[in-house]
Amino acid sequence: MKVVIVQPNFVDFAWKDGADCLSEACDKSGGEITGSQLKMLCAQGHRILARLDQEDKTVGWACGEIIQKPNVRCFHVTSLVCHNGRYQEAYSEVKAMARSTGCSELTWASSESVARLHRMMLKGETIEHVYSVYRIKL
Fold first, then answer.
1. Could you tell me how far CA 28 lies from the centroid of its own chain?
2. How many CA atoms are closer than 13 Å to the CA of 134, on its beta-carbon side?
3. What does the longest C-alpha to C-alpha distance in the chain come to?
4. Which residue, 57, 60, 83, 102, could crosslink 52 as a Cys pair with Cβ 3.0–4.6 Å?
5. pLDDT per position in the chain (138 positions), as tens?
6. Cα 82 off chain centre by
């Protein structure tokens, strides 16, 4: 599997080629973002859109952003969709892509059930619970 970064000016084509499946991940965001809003952020260069290819076929899509914190540079995965049991391979490729951009951590926000799934699927990785995000609607 390999990661192909989609440049912002090609996001429309990518969306037609299947990146719109990232809407599935957006549906689990608790209303923070919709698929069309994610597309806009990618097209404006505020998010990195990546196509996951295997043997010249697209098998998944990932989206994220680089966050430079005072003590660490991290790649924050905002959406990842990879069907047909290829999640572990996709994760490995996204991790390699993050390293290639100088990131020393990979982060994501998720529910506890998704975190448990990550722990199950990504055996051998040390997954730390850093903090939880809570909200109050105003």
1. 13
2. 2
3. 49
4. 60
5. 889 999 999 999 999 999 999 998 888 877 789 999 999 999 999 999 999 998 889 999 999 999 999 999 999 998 888 877 788 888 889 999 999 999 999 998 877 888 888 888 888 888 888 888 888 889
6. 10
DSSP assignments along 18-57, one per residue: TGGGGHHHHTTSTTS--HHHHHHHHHTTSSEEEEEEETTE
Whole-angstrom CA distances from 8 to 5, 13, 14, 28, 70 are 9, 10, 10, 24, 27
Structure tokens at 62: 């990932």
Strands (E), the chain: 2-6, 48-54, 57-68, 73-82, 105-108
DSSP for residue 7? P
What does pTM read for this prediction?
0.87
Residue 50's identity, in one-letter code, is A
Per the CB < 8 A criterion, the answer to whether 50 and 6 are in contact is: yes
